[in-house]
UniProtKB/TrEMBL annotation:
Residues 2-114 form the CoA-binding domain. InterPro entries: CoA-bd, NAD(P)-bd_dom_sf. This is CoA-binding protein.
Length: 119
């Protein structure tokens, strides 16, 4: 299964990032939730630091483009195979930086991808 880092993780059940962590876990993926506030989601601690998670297949973004620049180096240094830009997180600048490093990017919805077996 694909190790996925959820950037923008939240313990708020009304947030899509919350639902994504649950659905990824339910589909058997290893999940690393990273957010700005401590908490728990799906029984996992939300990291408020920048954990050096090795072998990350996918970074799925739930952070708006205006808040992404401070995360660029961290995301790119994880060297994931792909970055998913969920609706509202699209960012041509980060997409270009990722593609220059050979990281695939997708503008898609993690929840939809999981529900239709396209993750």
């Amino acid at each position: 299964m694909k190790k996925t880092l959820v950037l923008g993780a939240s313990d708020n059940p009304n947030r899509y990032a919350y639902r994504a962590v649950h659905q990824l876990k339910n589909h058997g993926h290893e999940v690393v939730p990273v957010g700005i506030r401590k908490g728990q989601v799906a029984g996992l601690d939300i990291h408020t630091d920048r954990p050096q998670a090795g072998d990350v297949d996918t970074v799925t973004l739930y952070v708006g483009p205006q808040n992404q620049p401070g995360w660029y180096d961290y995301i790119l240094d994880l060297n994931p195979k792909r970055i998913i830009f969920n609706p509202g997180t699209e960012n041509p600048e980060l997409e270009e930086l990722a593609q220059q490093r050979g990281i695939r990017t997708e503008e898609a919805c993690t929840l939809v991808m999981l529900s239709i077996g396209q993750y």
